[in-house]
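Continuing the batch. This is chain 6 of the set; chains 1 through 5 are on the previous pages. Same settings as before, nothing changed between runs. Recording input and output for traceability.
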Amino acid sequence: MGKILRALFPYVLLVLIGGPVAIGIDTYFEDAERRHELDWQSRAAFVLLAAGALLAWVLFHLRRERGATMAFPRVADLRRAGPGFVSHLAALPGVIRIIAIGVIAVGLARPQTYRTIVTETDSVDIMIVLDMSKSMEETDLRRDRTDAAQRVIRRFVAQRKGDRIGLVLFAQQAMLQCPLTLDMELFDRVVADLKMDDIPSLGTAIGDGLGMGLAYLRRSDAKSKIVILLSDGDNNVSTQMTPQQAAEAARDLNIKVFTVLVGADSQFGSSVNPGTLRNIADITGGKFFKATDWTELRDSFAEMRKTLDKTRRRKEERKKDKELFVPLVGLAVGLLFLELVLSATRFRRFP
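Output for chain 6:
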């Protein structure tokens, strides 16, 4: 019976010491979780807890059975004297080491707290429809018409905060280049990287481009939805919709189209048609501008935004708040240091 008790005593020590440590760690996590969301980055580290069980078997059984012995001529006298109380604590350094390994396993699982930040912003959904046809390579504006359009778009986007903006390109056909997004840096890179060969350029399908922009805006839940159409206005292809049909569709959807003429309409040999863009703006209740008149364009958009019904958008963002493994590392180091001191002093093993 005494032999069984001696075999079980290390586990009793493990429970008596490891229990309060485990409760303290659990309380630490509960307190953190009450304030913010708790997450574990590396749950696989909990496998190391099995190493603690293996170490317990090695320290409390295998090493006891295979431990070296010292010869002593008066064994009977030792038995009569009986083991002292400290002898029952011989497994204490091993117990502390096992607890330290358990604490390390929990720390390696990378417990972290996160907080959710909620922001609400006034928003307008804006779809920019840009002409990328061959005629946009005309150099009647600085560099060429495409470059002038890119500069106008990028300046406009740089002043937008809280709005969602998308981009549709059109020439012989139309395609979505960027869906509605709040990421203005991403959108700016998309516009800056545009090339004439991004879409077949032999043709100008203004109606198709505007129609595609309307199709994506139609799915939006925003109260305010507008289209900014930039082109030289020279429509010569219509595969899905004519400019007139697209303008009437925008009017039926209560979407205003603000048109921007890209090109100098008075220059000899330049193919611009301001009449098409003016007509679209008039039908939809928007306005017509010239890309070269930046001051008028900026002031007109500022005035336009004051009259729009804004949509209140709610955005939730999850951000890391605190790493919780640091105190666990400190505790584990302290336990290992204590185990080293005990093993080198009162609980030193001989031989």
